[in-house]
């Protein structure tokens, strides 16, 4: 029979500084934000996000170049319409990166490892949503900022007026980022395989946009402009455009928007419901995954 030996390895309790909840949340947020752009991952993971970011910049650079060469200030793209105009690129970025943040841990059953440490379920959800929203905001806000700086350099008239529109454009980017991140993360969290997650996010975007356009076309053909405006709340990009038009005083980019300031507050409230509801759904989803 073998004999057992007890070795004194000098184990001591940790007596150092404990960073606390804020440090944990910040670490999770930074980790997920880096993952959204493929940082810290193989080179192939960086191709898609940075390629899409470059494509997002091209129209802004081209618009500034036209203003500089042709001396036509009206050629500068509107800040509030930039995201709506390039919504396909934004949707592709969301579809490719949301599964990276929301589905990998569920697929490989590593969520319980996070919660074996003092990581709160709500902190985990907020860190992921915040990281994806930040990535989307950067994707949209950088080209809008290029437009604004280009306008200043090329001496577009009425700089103060342009500054106010720029701030309104940034506010729109914040709303776009929050709502799209909320929707994309929820869809990706329920499709553990990345390929299915990409397809699911694209499907949600295409179905809502196509359905909205069809109904708006039929309603306008029947001169029912009230329905044509209100049906826009079913598509995320149209929903935020309602807020931009009715509450931020911008020109519309969607096919139609409902009349009256009240419609802007309704659209803003719906944005808040989408974000809060997504947090609640993701909380339950990751909590269940953490117990499996």
TrEMBL record:
UniProt protein name: ABC transporter permease
Keywords carried by this UniProt record: Membrane, Transmembrane, Transmembrane helix
Keyword Ribosomal protein among UniProt keywords: no
Residues passing through the membrane, by range: 47-70, 82-104, 124-151, 163-190, 196-215, 227-245, 265-283
Signal peptide: none
């Amino acid at each position: 029979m073998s004999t057992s030996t007890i070795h004194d390895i000098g184990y001591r309790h940790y007596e150092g500084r404990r960073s606390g909840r804020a440090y944990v949340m910040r670490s999770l947020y930074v980790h997920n934000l880096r993952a959204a752009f493929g940082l810290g991952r193989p080179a192939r993971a960086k191709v898609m996000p940075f390629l899409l970011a470059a494509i997002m910049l091209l129209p802004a650079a081209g618009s500034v170049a036209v203003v500089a060469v042709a001396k036509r200030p009206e050629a500068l793209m509107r800040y509030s319409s930039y995201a709506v105009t390039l919504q396909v690129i934004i949707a592709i970025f969301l579809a490719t990166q949301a599964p990276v943040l929301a589905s990998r841990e569920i697929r490989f059953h590593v969520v319980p490892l996070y919660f074996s440490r003092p990581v709160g379920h709500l902190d985990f959800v907020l860190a992921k949503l915040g990281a994806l929203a930040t990535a989307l905001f950067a994707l949209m806000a950088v080209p809008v900022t290029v437009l604004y700086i280009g306008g200043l350099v090329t001496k577009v008239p009425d700089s103060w007026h342009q500054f106010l529109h720029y701030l309104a454009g940034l506010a729109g980017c914040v709303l776009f980022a929050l709502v799209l991140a909320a929707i994309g993360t929820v869809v990706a969290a329920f499709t553990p395989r990345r390929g299915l997650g990409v397809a699911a996010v694209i499907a949600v975007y295409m179905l809502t946009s196509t359905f909205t356009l069809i109904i708006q076309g039929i309603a306008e053909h029947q001169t029912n402009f009230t329905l044509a405006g209100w049906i826009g709340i079913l598509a995320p990009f149209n929903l935020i455009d309602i807020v931009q038009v009715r509450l931020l005083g911008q020109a519309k980019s969607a096919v139609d928007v409902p009349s009256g300031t009240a419609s802007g507050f309704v659209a803003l409230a719906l944005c808040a419901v989408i974000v809060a509801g997504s947090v609640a759904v993701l909380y339950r989803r990751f909590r269940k995954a953490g117990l499996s």
